[in-house]
Design a protein that fits this description.
- The N terminus and C terminus are likely disordered.
- This protein has a four-stranded antiparallel β-sheet, with helices on one face. Strands 1-4 form a two-stranded antiparallel sheet.
- Helix 17 packs parallel to helix 20 and helix 21 runs antiparallel to helix 22.
- The radius of gyration is 25 Å and the shape is globular.
- The chain is an alpha+beta fold.
- Helices cover 51% and strands 12% of the residues.
Length: 532
């Protein structure tokens, strides 16, 4: 029963996502010899067709527990894999019974303790594949689809069929579209992204050899996940998104190209323009919580990550930036107690990276103290008013009078401003006559491509975000990796409508270079005119 989850509150989002997971697994293709070897080393797998689906999940799935970095295996996905979601909805499903049967008939693997009341998900701790099968699995993951001899679907064993793959991909898109029906402020964004033609993504696969070279340079323990994601892109490279109940953000339905490590993704999508709001969350809370020291810092166009790295006396690198963002600054803004924050910083920065006095250095900064105190005041205001109003004027009520509920509202409020800052770019793309396209969305940033006239559309994106940031009094700008970063838009000139009517190549600007000429790199910035 495809829509069974809608009968019980709490399954509305789990149902479509898990059905997509199963559809993706059903289109996993392997060489026929590999599948035969799976039967050889796991002979009990043919006792139940659902065993093939669980084995596919264990072998090829990648979406992890955000807290533990391990493969989640909750009752919703197990019921889906066993084709018993309807029993789960009616309250008559036992996940542990399925696992016990699988352990007895096929393969034993270790799982963690879990608790519904504590919000602790069941995860796979380790899988002890037979040694020979483990080697064969790694070899299979290293093969591109065209390199697999006598390709068959892993779960069914049927020969690979383009028609079957197309059907499964269409089902995935149908499930993704179900989120549009209940979407609110992110509805237009979801509709735009899901309606894009898939050829825009399959074109990136021409760079797969470059991406594979990057993967092979990664530590061996990181390669498997990247190879699994790359492998599934050949049937559907277009990211699919879902909504969340308490956020205007949209999230990938499963690990697609957005989940690839940054260096792998950039090798694959090297023609895309990566765009990010600078210090978005910090700039938003500085405005909402009235933090003058933070606003003063941001007004100087400094990088908070470079500043913190310098104070810690360590060179900034992607690993350090990620840790500073997700293990210190965001928890400081949106929830952690001082005790937990100190423990995390001690474990990751001091013990893990060898940085002495990391917590005292970071937490003791005047701007961090201002954030800490500003958060407390904001929470008290939420308590007093029993809610807050977000960037779109929507009232977010506080249903339960506790700190956890207040922290949730803080995050929802900041995320609404994050979306509000970037939505003008969506309008720009929709009105660009297909010259500008947004191909991927990542909360405070996105990936775009310009069919032509990048020297016009990149500055235009930056300008519409600047206009919105000025309107909201938020100290941030849109940063891109485009070579046209140094270009500026004149405050007077053509409107978008006039640009469409005349054609981008007819813009009257004597300083505009020939289309084959690279933009200047010196301090004399050239200008192209367009009014937004």
């Amino acid at each position: 029963m495809q829509d069974g989850w809608k009968k019980v509150t709490g399954f509305e989002s789990a149902g479509p996502t898990n059905m997509v997971t199963l559809n993706v697994l059903k289109r996993m293709v392997v060489s026929s010899q590999f599948r035969n070897n799976v039967v050889k080393y796991l002979p009990g797998i043919n006792k139940n067709s659902a065993y093939w689906q669980l084995t596919a999940y264990l072998m090829f799935w990648t979406t992890k527990s955000s807290k533990e970095g391990k493969l989640m295996i909750g009752q919703e996905i197990l019921a889906t894999l066993e084709n018993k979601f309807e029993q789960l909805v009616s309250g008559n499903y036992s996940a542990i019974s399925f696992l016990t049967d699988y352990w007895s008939d096929v393969l034993s693997f270790e799982i963690s303790d879990w608790s519904y009341f504590e919000g602790k998900a069941r995860v796979v701790e380790s899988i002890d594949w037979p040694n020979e099968l483990d080697v064969l699995l790694q070899q299979e993951l290293n093969k591109l689809p065209r390199e697999k001899e006598e390709p068959v679907f892993f779960i069914s064993g049927e020969p690979r069929s383009e028609r079957k793959i197309k059907t499964l991909v269409e089902l995935e898109k149908t499930q993704a579209n179900s989120f549009i029906e209940t979407a609110t402020r992110n509805k237009e964004l979801l509709m735009y992204l899901t309606e894009l033609n898939s050829y825009r993504y399959t074109r990136a696969l021409k760079n797969v050899k470059n991406a594979l070279d990057v993967v092979k340079a990664l530590p061996i323990e990181s390669q498997g996940r990247e190879l699994k994601i790359l492998g599934r892109l050949f049937d559907n490279a277009q990211p699919l998104y879902k909504t969340a109940e308490k956020s205007v953000r949209i999230f990938p339905m499963y690990d697609n190209l957005l989940a690839l490590k940054r260096e792998v993704r950039q090798a694959l999508t090297q023609d895309w323009i990566e765009c990010d709001l600078r210090s978005a969350q910090l700039a938003i809370v500085a405005r909402l919580w009235n933090l003058p020291l933070v606003n003063e810092f941001l007004a100087k166009n400094q990088s908070i990550w470079e500043h913190l790295a310098e104070l810690l006396n360590i060179e900034l690198n992607p690993k350090l930036k990620k840790a500073l963002k997700h293990e210190f600054l965001y928890p400081l803004c949106f929830g952690e107690s001082k005790r937990v924050l100190k423990q995390v910083v001690t474990d990751i920065f001091e013990k893990g990276m060898g940085i002495e006095n990391a917590f005292d250095t970071l937490f003791g900064l005047p701007i961090m103290q201002e954030i800490w105190k500003g958060r407390a005041k904001r929470i008290q205001k939420i308590y007093k008013e029993w809610g807050l109003r977000d960037a779109f004027g929507d009232w977010l009520p506080m249903k339960k009078h506790d700190k956890k509920a207040a922290i949730s509202l803080l995050a929802q409020e900041a995320q609404s401003y994050e979306l509000s800052l970037l939505l003008p770019v969506l309008d720009l793309a929709k009105n660009s006559n297909d010259n500008l396209s947004i191909l991927a969305w990542q909360h405070d940033g996105f990936s775009a491509v310009c069919k032509k006239n990048e020297e016009i559309w990149v500055p235009a994106m930056k300008q519409v975000v600047k206009n919105k940031a000025n309107e909201l009094a938020i100290n941030t700008v849109l940063e891109t990796d485009s070579s046209f970063n140094d270009w500026e838009l004149s405050p007077r000139g053509l409107t978008i409508k006039q640009l469409h009517q005349q054609g981008p190549n007819q813009v009257k600007n004597p300083e505009q270079p020939d289309k084959h000429t690279k933009p200047p790199t010196d301090t004399n910035k050239r200008r192209t005119t367009i009014t937004l």
